[in-house]
Specification:
Length: 329
Amino acid sequence: MVVVVVVVVLIQNRTNLTANTIFILLGFSDHPELQTLLFLAFLTIFMLTVAGNLVIVVLVVSDGHLHTPMYFFLGNLSCLEICYTSTILPRLFFSLLTGDRTISVHGCILQYFFFGSLASTECYVLAVMSYDRYLAICRPLRYTYLMNGRICFGLLAISWMTGVLNVGVITSLLFKLLFCGPNEIEHFFCDLAPLFKLSCSNTHLVELVTFIFASINTLPPFLLTLISYLCIIINILQMKTKASRQKAFSTCSSHLIVVTLFYGSLICVYLLPETNTRKELHKTFSLFYTVFTPMLNPLIYSLRNREIKAALARTATKIVNVAHCQCNS
């Protein structure tokens, strides 16, 4: 009996000695000649993303004409995009600039937690925005009652809490996994699938929980978004005048483009059958929903939305007037 206990202790100690404490994010290391160019490109994208989304937030907060549910959700989406990009790109900057691609196991899991929580929350926020457009176009007489301030705050709070809590459960299970052997992640951030592949523990429970929560976080919001826009399109087609159809479609076309980009890239990364070609394109598709979509969102909304452009013009005029007054004084 004593021998058995000693053997078990020795095995546990050996396991602890061989357990990985760091991962290596390979990222774009297969193109060493492009590291400086990639750094400058991603830095430019990051600055545009933060600046563009910050402008949307400032406009929504400061301009009284935008104090409506639609722009309330848009402002929160912009905040979400800033946080979303900030969980991934700074670490990528460090790797490209210094060549150090190591990240601690706990740091990697925490990066997944923030990335996963924000991605899940974005699914719900996009669904809430589509439901808001459905009420505005298909139920205009009851819109003010059905989408008042209390309901807006409640829907947003539920979106955040659901995303954070669901991914929090998965993260707590990830911390219990043991990682040994290979420690290279063929990605530029800590996604969930590579972590499963590197674990030498039994991952069946974590994968099952992940599948359940991933289904909860993506399928209902996607179906709600899809149903909302089907109803919107049917309602628009039934409008009698061309002007009415154009006005109704213009209020939701920007959001429809954003939804298409977001879910389209997610489907390409996670749902298409795994092939050698898809493996090579995995990082490219991942860039769309983690980097390019957050940058394009403010451009799409500002270029295709008259009220945003009008608010931007009013804000710019106020800034010029204030600067002019200060110069005269």
